[in-house]
Amino acid sequence: MGPLFAKQRYLLDFALSCLWRRRGKNLALLTVYTLVVFAVASVMFFTQALKREAALVLGATPELLVQKLTLGRHDLIPADYTHRIREIRGVGQVTGRLWGYYYDPQVRANYTVLAPQGVEVPERTVLVGAGIARVRHLTRGATLTFQGYDGKPYSFQVRGVLSPESELLSADLILMSAADLRRLFGLPEGLYTDLTVAVANPREVSTVAAKIQELYPDTRPIVREEIRRTYEAAFDWRAGILLAVLSGALLAFLIFAWDKAAGLSAEERREIGLLKALGWDTAEVLQLKFWEGAVVSLTAFFLGTVGACLHVFVAPAPLFAPVIKGWSILYPRFRLTPFISLFDLGILFFFTVVPYTVATIVPVWRAASMDPDQVMRS
Amino acid sequence: MIELQEVRKVFHAGRPNEQVAVAGVSLTLEAGKLTVFRGPSGSGKTTLLSLIGCMARPTSGRIFLKGREITSLPVRFLTDLRRRTFGFIFQQFHLLAGVSVLENVMLPAYPLGEKYRHLRARALGWLERLGLLSKAGAKAEWLSGGEAQRVAIARALINDPDILIADEPTAHLDTRLSREFMALMADFRAAGTTILIASHDPLVHEAPAVDRVVDLRDGRLLTPEAPG
After folding, report:
1. Which residues of A touch B49 (CB under 8 A)?
2. Which residues span the domain enclosing A304?
3. Number of domains in chain B
4. Is A236 on the interface with B (CB under 8 A)?
5. Is the pLDDT of residue B35 over 60?
6. Are A259 and A326 part of one and the same domain?
7. Least confident of A41-50, A177-186, B51-60, B198-207
């Protein structure tokens, strides 16, 4: 162990001892600091994880969706639109999708009803999302009855509960066969909710979208990338609102920290003078105070970040979820896949640990650069 | 060993509250002797000691330590010289409250970064010699005046200094403790340490171990040394 390392260890030991001497004040500071880091990190982690979930979900959706518009609103699209779209160069498969919303007055929630492509659902049966299974207490084999477009009851047997990777978008989902969906909603053959268009070369997606728009001016082609951007913007906006609310707390903390750091008490000044009189260099006093600041801020950062991880990924973010998720009335209860961006963590570190440590050191530097003989004359 | 040439120290120079603390002192102090600076309050004793102990720079004049001029040394060298050469005992003791006696004693040695085992052993050795071993773990604020001063002495000795500087060391001690303090100083002097004490306490300057008394008034020597 070299003298340099040993010296830093002495300084760190003594810094801990100094913190412990003023433990009341320092524990109060640590608590407030930890809470601020916890709140900001929670919003950050939650938004990041949601965006990632959304990206995962969107990854499975087609690159291009085509909706028909009537009076500027989404309308059902005729099946014969598929033929001419398929003839556009670069287009692979064009498939009609059937989906809609069903309002369940019993639990006052909206379900998303979908006739899946590639999954065979026998008639008179449904697959339900985990959220619906929970609120309606459904298990395999149970019967679920909906009121059809004509007011008549339509009963389905639950074949199973969906348990996909991401619960975010599937919690309120009901899968049924296309024939059942048409019967339930009174939808005639030859009409679809929208069309999915497969494009072999991703770089051609926007060209194909422009051609479809030209071919059918009454349609709206939606590119997956645009949906992704919309999701991101929405989540960022919500996170922004929360951070704006939290900024009050952040400001209060900054004032508190500044006051603590900038206002050296007479006792602290005397001690700094004493250390200098005992043969400590200005740099060594600064290093000591750096360690004090670093211990407080790193502990707060660590506790706040770990607390935020537990809050967001273990408990389902009970404090912020309703604001950031803002889904339908039926809040999907789901557990997010832990995802933390190192870049964001770095930014959080930079904006919490660095300013505090600097705010601690600056006034000390002023006090530490005085002549040590002031102790002799005091 | 320590030589002062026309040393002056002026506080608040050029302002209405300008104060000349030391007004041109020339003095030679021998190594291994116990010297007492005597004089009333404001005579410049403490300022002179802080100049010799590298705590402040003189406004003018020069100070030599073992033949080396120290007044023009950069701050870093001055600090290093201070912690390796001098041990200080302050009038108010200035122990850190809330910290153990042992830690208070070791404090001046932290920046030197020596092995903890060695440092601790040396600190405990001094505490034992000063009869304070049982108080090593106690907080500084629990000590009596005499104990606090002995801790301050142990702290001053932790870096094995050649020169011990004490400013009014008996100001807060009764007669018995003052005599004990001077007996300790006599021991250190016998061991070869140079001791400089500022005091106007007769118990100090009349102690048998004192080699020389330097009288000061208004920042000057009452009896200037003949130029050597």
Report:
1. 376
2. 3-57+230-377
3. 1
4. no
5. yes
6. yes
7. A41-50
Close Cβ partners of A286 (under 8 Å, ≥ 6 residues apart):
A361, A364, A365, A368
Please indicate, yes or no, whether residues A263 and A180 belong to a single structural domain of this protein: no
From A279, which residue of chain B is nearest by alpha-carbon distance? B83
Query: A266 — contact with chain B (CB < 8 Å)?
Result: no
> Is B108 within 8 Å of chain A by CB?
yes
- Domain-ending residue, one of A192, A212, A244: A192
Contacts of residue B155 in chain A, CB cutoff 8 Å? 278
Residues in contact with A370: Cβ distance below 8 Å, sequence separation at least 6, in sequence order: A273, A276
Res A249: pLDDT: 67
Domain range holding B144?
Answer: 2-221
CB-based contact A373 B50, cutoff 8 Å = yes
Tell if the CB–CB gap between A376 and B49 is shorter than 8 Å.
Answer: yes
Q: Indicate if A108 and A139 belong to the same structural domain.
A: yes
Task: Please check whether residue A213 is in contact with residue A65, taking contact to mean a CB–CB distance below 8 angstroms.
Answer: no
Listed in sequence order, the residues at least 6 apart from A338 whose beta carbon sits closer than 8 Å to its beta carbon are: A49, A309, A313
Max distance between CA atoms of chain A, in angstroms, equals: 99
Average pLDDT for A323-334: 50
A132-175 pLDDT, tens per residue? 888 888 888 999 999 999 999 999 999 988 765 556 667 778 99
Contact in structure between A115 and A176 (CB atoms under 8 Å): yes
- Residue tagged 């003023």 (tokens): A22
Q: Is residue A68 part of a domain?
A: no
* Residue A372 touches chain B, beta carbons under 8 Å: yes
Counted across chains A and B, CB pairs separated by less than 8 A come out at: 89
Contacts of B167 in chain A (CB under 8 A): 376
Question: Is A331's pLDDT higher than 50?
Answer: no
Give the pLDDT score at A289: 87
**Looking at this protein, which amino acid is placed at residue A155?**
S
Domain count across chain A: 2
What mean pLDDT comes out for the span B45-66? Answer: 92
In a domain, B228, yes or no: no
pLDDT of residue A330: 42
Task: Provide the chain A residues 276-335 that lie in CB contact (below 8 A) with chain B.
Answer: 277-282, 284
- Do residues A286 and A360 both lie within one domain? yes
